[in-house]
Structure formats: C-alpha cells, structure tokens
Amino acid sequence: MARASTASHTNLLAYPNCYRSSFSCRGGLLTFFPTPTNPTSAIMSHRKFEAPRHGSLAFLPRKRAARHRGKVKSFPKDDPKKPVHLTAAMGYKAGMTTIVRDLDRPGAKAHKKEVVEAVTIIDTPPMIVVGLVGYIETPRGLRSLTTVWAEHLSDEVKRRFYKNWYKSKKKAFTKYAKKHSDNSGSSITRELERIKKYCTVVRQKKAHLMEIQLNGGSVADKVEFGTALFEKPVGIDSIFEQDEMIDVIAVTKGHGYSGVTARWGTKKLPRKTHKGLRKVACIGAWHPSHVQWTVARAGQMGYHHRTSVNHKVYRIGKGDADDNAATELDITKKTITPMGGFVRYGEINNDFVMVKGSVPGVKKRVMTLRKSMFIHTSRRALEKVELKWIDTSSEFGHGAFQTPAEKKAFQGTLKKDLVASA
C-alpha cells in the first residue's frame, strides 16, 4: 500500500518536454532539478531583428562647417550692474599634456588625494581691437546700426577683405582713414554718438576677424571702453581668470566621406552578407516610398561646428616667463612647451590657457573661448585648483625628461657632443 502511494506521488511530478529530469533523494525527500536542453540565454547564430537607434539626430545636418573659425551664436546675458568687460577671446590649439593635483572635493572618495588629469594647452596671443559695432533692437532681432573702425589697420586685417591680396591695389580703408584726420575726426565722433543714443548691444571687431560682445555698464560706458582699446593689444588674462568655467567653440577634426558603420555606429552585418557588411540592412519600408531622414546614411564625417561647454581653467600662463610650467612643489625652471615642442605645432611664446579635458579641432586650429552662459554653483565648478606637477616631457621621443638640462645630467657627455665641439 505504501509502495502504491509512492508510485502515485511520483506520477504527480511533471515537467515541460524541453527539460531532462534529474532526481535525487536526500533524507527521504524526493527533489527535482530541471535541466534545460534548449536554453533561451544561449548565443544565437543569426542576427537579431531589433536594435535601438544608432547615432543622435540632434546634430543634423552632418555637413562641413561654413566657416573655419568657431562662431559665437549666443553671448552671456548682459548685466548693467557689472563693470564693462569682454565676453570671449580667440586662441589656437597647441596640444595636450598631463597634470597632477590634489582633489579638493569633500565627500568624494579621492578627496585630498592625488589625481592625474589630461589638459589642453591653447595658445592665446594678444588680440588687437580694430573696430566697434553698434546694434539696435528690431521686431526681427538685432540689426547693426553702424561700425566705427580704428584709424590704423594692419595688413593682416586688410587681407580679410581681399580674395587675392597679392594682385590687389591694397587701398582698403584709405578713404576711411581720412575721416579721422578731417575736421578733427568729427564724423567718427558723430558715429560714436549715434551708437550711444540708439544702440542696445555693442560689440568689437577683432583681428582674426570676429565680433565680441561687451557686457556690463551702460551703452555709453561700452563705447568709451571699446574706443579706448582701439589699436591696443588685449591679453587673455584681462578676459578670463583661473578656476573659471568657459566654453570652447571650434570646428571638429574632419574625416571626409565615411560609411554608416563609422559615421553612425551601426552594427556590422554577418560575415556572409552579400555585397558588403558595413551597411544598413534595411533602409526603409516599401511605403512611404522614400528613404526617411532618420535612416543612417553614408556621408561627411567631421569638420562640424561644435560647442564644448564647462571647461575649467587650470592656469593662465605668461608667454615671457621662463618658468610658466613650474608649481609650488615642482620648482624646476621650465616652460609649458614640452621637449622638442608640441607635435605639429611647435613652441608657445605667447600667453596660454590651460583647460581641463579635450577640446574640438586639430592642432593649429583657431578656437573661440567664451565665458559661460550660466551661473555655476556646483562644487566641481567652484573648486580651487592647485597644480602639483605639469608634464613637459617629449611627446614624440623616448624618456620622461622634463628639461634638456635634466636629460644631459642623466646621460652625461655623448659622442655627438664631442663631435660637435670638435
């Protein structure tokens, strides 16, 4: 009877056909372990038919930038209570290096510990003020009322107004320069008074050539500030300061015509796919009978206009200082230029800005640096940066020597030195 009961109990055990049963008896308890024969988690040999969207549609159209220099499409909001100041500057990307500093971020795991970070060095020669532009508000936005130019303009400024400078007569601004001398410059004064009376936004024209908005103070204060800078150099330290958050506007590195795999990051098709596998398998339905704009297609990759925001300024260095790469803990007399120079750039002899992280563009490309559009309150933005060490070793050769003197002290007199002295 007990045996029949056991048999009936055993018959009640059921499992799906896709499992092999595995029984064990421990201490009189009958247990069952289902073992899958067709696991659903196994790797399939065919391509899946669903995938998330590849690539962002926010940056369409992905075409070549219209201009080589980054354009400031929005300036920080003007505050008349603040003193008059410039809101942007220009520089040239020189290269990248490495720094070591103590992190000052309470609550973080690396607080008061050394961190190694990548920084970008931007060469910022002084800008020369060459003009003043006044804008008036209209129902359709800002419209320029008048432009006042400086009396003496260099040839590098005049070149911007010629397609072929070599074959031209080079007479640009010759008639305009006479306005400064005729009647003691009364016509120039009249134009400046028009700007003070009618304009709401005042910007300066600068040689690369770009307009930079003046913020702070009244319109009359802006005009006086701008005209006082005519034909004078404006250093980068008068625009930005250390520990400030800035935006970098530039044109990215160009890669020419690229396929969908590199341009959009779509998945490669299986190996045996006919007529190539770095493609999109299906570019759309039969109807609507056209390729939609959201489908990944081959085309231009890179050389796009981009704005990279919130770069912290780690240092603003002087170009004429021979120790602009020294710190409180590393008192070695060295400049920011690494041994052998920056690859594909050379030496930095002007003032420079060191910002955290990477910025768009290639070496030698002009960058537009803009003051941040927002008021920052985060700990990361308000953190005080104290650099402990800046790497100036060769970016191309071997070794980690920081200066030529350090390399010579380690290697001693070489054969090539004896040959050169002889």
TrEMBL record:
**So which domain of life are we looking at?**
Eukaryota
One molecular function GO term is: structural constituent of ribosome
Q: Which cell locations does it reside in?
A: Cytoplasm; Nucleus, Nucleolus
| UniProt entry keywords in alphabetical sequence | Acetylation, Cytoplasm, Isopeptide bond, Methylation, Nucleus, Phosphoprotein, Ribonucleoprotein, Ribosomal protein, Ubl conjugation
- The record's principal subcellular location, in a coarse class, is cytoplasm
Gene Ontology terms: cellular component: cytosolic large ribosomal subunit; nucleolus
From its record, what is one biological process in GO terms? translation
Which SUPFAM superfamilies does this UniProt record tie to the protein?
Answer: Translation proteins
Q: Which family does it belong to?
A: Belongs to the universal ribosomal protein uL3 family.
- Subunit: Component of the large ribosomal subunit. Interacts with DHX33.
The entry's function note states: Component of the large ribosomal subunit. The ribosome is a large ribonucleoprotein complex responsible for the synthesis of proteins in the cell.
Q: What is this protein called?
A: Large ribosomal subunit protein uL3
Classification from the root reads:
Eukaryota, Fungi, Dikarya, Ascomycota, Pezizomycotina
